[in-house]
Amino acid sequence: MGAMDKTTTDGSLIGKRIPKMDAPEKASGKTRYVHDIDLPGQLHAKILRSSQVHAKIVSIDTSAARALPGVHAVITAADVPWQRPIGVAKDHLPLKADRVRSPRDEIAAVAAETEEIASAALKLIKVAYEPLPVVATAEESLKPGATLVHGEDLIVPGADGKPHVVHKASRDNVAMTFTYGQGDIAKGAAESDVVVEDVFWLHYVTHCCMGVSGVIAEFDASDNLLLYSNTQVPFLHKREFAELLGMDPGRIRIIQPPIGGGFGSKLDIYPFEPIAIYLAKITRRPVKLMFTREEEFIASPTRQPVLLKMRSGCSKDGKLTFRDVETVHDNGAYTSWGATTPFVMMQTISSLYRVPHCNYSTRAIYTNNPYAGSFRGYGNLQATFAVEAHMDKLAEEIGMDPLEFRLINAQDPGEITPQGMHFKSCGFKDCLRTAASRSDYQTKFRAARAKWNDGNPIKRGVGMASMLHVGGGAKIYPSDGCGTIIKIDDFAHVTLITGASEIGQGSETVLAQLACEELGLPMSVVSVVNSDTDIKPWDVGVHASRTTFIAGNSVVGAARKAKAKILATAGAKFHQPAEALDLRDSCVVDKASGKKLIEIDKLIRSLHFSDKADLVMTTFYYEPPSEKQDKEFHGDVSAAYAWATQVAEVEVDTATGIVKLLKVTGAHDVGRVINRLGIEGQIEGGVVMGQGYALTENLIVENGVIRNPNFRDYKLVTAPEIPDIDISFIETMDGEGPQGAKGVGEAPAICVAAAVANAIYDATGVRITALPFTPENVYRALHSNSRPPTWIAAA
Amino acid sequence: MSANIDIAFKLNGIEVRSRVSPGMSALEMLRDELHLTGSKYGCGEGECGACTVNVDGLSINSCLLFAADCDGREIVTIEGLASDPHTEALKKSFVAYGAVQCGFCTPGIVMQARHLLEKTEHPTPEQIRRGIEGNLCRCTGYKKIIEAIAEASAASA
């Protein structure tokens, strides 16, 4: 589509539009998600959640529920005294013992013959509470004398039976902090001709996977645990479940049925999973636990809400001088991955553009609100929103075209940033120029400003924003690797067993393409096995836009080993050096002439069934050449980095505050396109997810309570509202990527809101620093009925 | 609990009988009693379209229809269209155009698209967008779904 596309050579699968392998099953309604699986003897579980936001639990009476016919088990914290905490900070017991900190909190659970009986039993459980003051905002939480959310040590019995402190009390409601610095802010400020400062508010949104959360847990006769789980990180969770249950991880098997949407929501263990396991353990029956949609809204993680203060400077000739950022994250009642999003935010703040002096400090603050998890982009939407607003503001202050200003400060290939990231391939400037030229950005940008005072209530404008994100994995664990097993049978049918997990993004198809490209076989001979931890080799999980890059390199490695084995066999048979042979069109061929020597299946049969029988079965483990960052967050954390620029065109009705997103022109440095159909789907879906973040989605949290836990009041973008989307691929052919590819999964969602904010300013002359741009918020901002977000006084 | 209700209706061309509880939705009956899991539970309140089925020629969110009210009606689910050539064309088009990612919304959208093309053989892009506005998809951004429906419509020309 884009001007920069490389044409593919004939016969190659790379860059082609390859339909998703599991799409025929899915389109026919035959795919069995976890929701569609029922095991013989299965019980149905339901969870009783708190009716209070913050309270002491005085008593729980489950006697009537236990007496209800069809009920097999009712459990509270008292029934599982051995339970251990979950989450990133281990501050969260699945079943709450003496205190609830959020209306999502789990107090009891029932396993019954039917869902109906389980629901009826919940209504019979009587809980007496003693209400505590609600800590409704991070600002209140930081005030001296504020109620403490985790004011006491969390103590549970350890493996030795003795009490252990697993989470230390927080006496100031601070859950987690990050501090990063490079250079000297004072020096940067002194060298600045222009300085701008703003406070930004990035709101609550949530994943809204179309398939609600659920799990089936079953213990076999030998006490091995089988989980049918939607997890994105099965191998990490095997280990975590083992710790929670005091089990050997080797006795836990996780099967991942096709997953109805992930987007980062399934990177952590949530209370419902251990609760289903407890019930299975107690009842000795398979236990299935499925959320309702309302529960999905209330008890799922959110994107991290952020209050962000940023001060930035530049010189008259357009060079960034410094950036000073402080953020407060509402952590909610418990700590999940949301608290660690600063890890990604600081990469954008320090390294999207060259900025010599930079500070970033952040605190995640306990409140009684929903807690934040990981969500596609992982803090980058929030950081990019602020950084790109200031790029436009600084350009305007010095009277420079915003594209020119960005080009002056954009990263180049070969750059090693002060944070230690090495941009070996970097198409950032091509992204900027391509998105600008294809959208006619500069002309439209100037034309919009000329009409600010023309009296027409309908305004149009364009806005630009760019992003940097990991594109070659992210080494946040000791390993960021993935294993592959390739088995080629005597019919040359390929079983591709990958550690990677599929959540709808199309990894199975891309991985099969990469294998076939090496083996000279058609896609039709490949089966991908990717959903059973007893079969597939280790992988970190599906996160950080890493699967095409990491699992892809692993597949290429395994396929090359299989190819070498086949060619060596053929070489011996035909008395030719293996290097002179190749695999094409399901045959071994003479590399130079292309002459066919033998069909691959026939050759494998001769190998397989000879007196020196051997199988074509290879393994490969790929570990990217990246490094864990040190304590100061220095280090080349990814083997490659992805870049993109998006230009948004909006229409603003200043009389109603309605903002229409007309068009998004995106240029994405993806390294190389592997599957054109799949990558377009990732980008279009990401753009529309970004549109929702910017314009329609808003999880309304008041005093700890979610006010709109349904699709009527939580507004996802629907088909009539989507913009025109123009995508260009900048193919920088990354030296480490499989066939040159880099990760793309998160990238398209990251800069939409930032571009829309700049477009609204271009249309109206009003800078709005708080999301979302709903009609009410925009109307108030345009008509001076709102004040911009302010920094926390107590902080 | 109130007494269960015996009902008889035509499901995917075959007469069936079922005994349902008064509060049960048609979706619960289809999935839990009749084991047709192609219709999905996405929200349970008619906002997402993942449970779309055809009832007496109308496209319906089956989560909003009481099972008891299926008595005497004719219901078609995604499973009932397995050999319908128009649906087959739609499914092929969804596959070829990349309109399927996680796939959870897909059967409902195929059902809705089938209904749309039955009413309007060659819809405009605007009619397609409006025709599926009751179906939520979190993965694709709808663009390829709209293209796939347009292609299936053109192919039937």
Structure description:
Chain A is an alpha+beta fold. Chain A has four domains: 34-134 and 212-259 and 266-299, Aldehyde Oxidoreductase, domain 3; 136-207 and 304-373, Aldehyde Oxidoreductase, domain 4 (2-Layer Sandwich); 410-472 and 632-782, 2-Layer Sandwich (Aldehyde Oxidoreductase, domain 4), CATH 3.30.365.10; 481-622, Aldehyde Oxidoreductase, domain 4 (2-Layer Sandwich), CATH 3.30.365.10. In chain A, 27% of the residues lie in helices and 25% in strands. Chain A has 20 helices and 30 strands. The longest helix of chain A has 28 residues, at 547-574. The model of chain A is unreliable at 1-9 (pLDDT under 50). Chain B is of the alpha+beta class and 157 residues long. In chain B, 34% of the residues lie in helices and 16% in strands. In chain B, strands 2-1-5-3-4 form a five-stranded mixed β-sheet, sandwiched between helices. In chain B, β3 (52-55) and β4 form a beta hairpin. Chain B is globular, with a radius of gyration of 16 Å. Chain B starts with a strand and ends with a helix. At the A-B interface, α1 and α17 of A face α2, α3, α4 and α5 of B.
Considering the chains and any ligands shown, give keywords for the structure.
A: about 800 residues; alpha+beta; Aldehyde Oxidoreductase, domain 3; Aldehyde Oxidoreductase, domain 4; 4 domains; seven-stranded mixed sheet; five-stranded mixed sheet; about 25% helix; globular; disordered N terminus; B: alpha+beta; Ubiquitin-like (UB roll); DNA polymerase, domain 1; 5 strands; about 35% helix
Q: Label the CATH architecture of the largest domain in chain B.
A: Roll
β-strand percent of chain B reads 15-25%
Q: Indicate the percent of residues in helices of chain B.
A: 25-40%
- Please state roughly what percent of the residues of chain A sit in beta strands, choosing from under 5%, 5-15%, 15-25%, 25-35%, 35-45% or over 45%: 15-25%
Helix/strand structural class of chain A: alpha+beta
Fourth CATH level, the homologous superfamily of the largest domain in chain A: Aldehyde oxidase/xanthine dehydrogenase, molybdopterin binding domain
Intertermini distance of chain A: 49 Å
- Biggest sheet of chain A, in brief? 7 strands, mixed
Annotation field: number of helices of chain B: 5
SSE string of chain B: EEHEEEHHHH
Helix and strand composition category of chain B: alpha+beta
Q: What is the CATH homologous superfamily assignment of the largest domain in chain B?
A: Beta-grasp domain
Oligomeric state as shown: heterodimer
Quote the CATH topology of the largest domain in chain B.
Ubiquitin-like (UB roll)
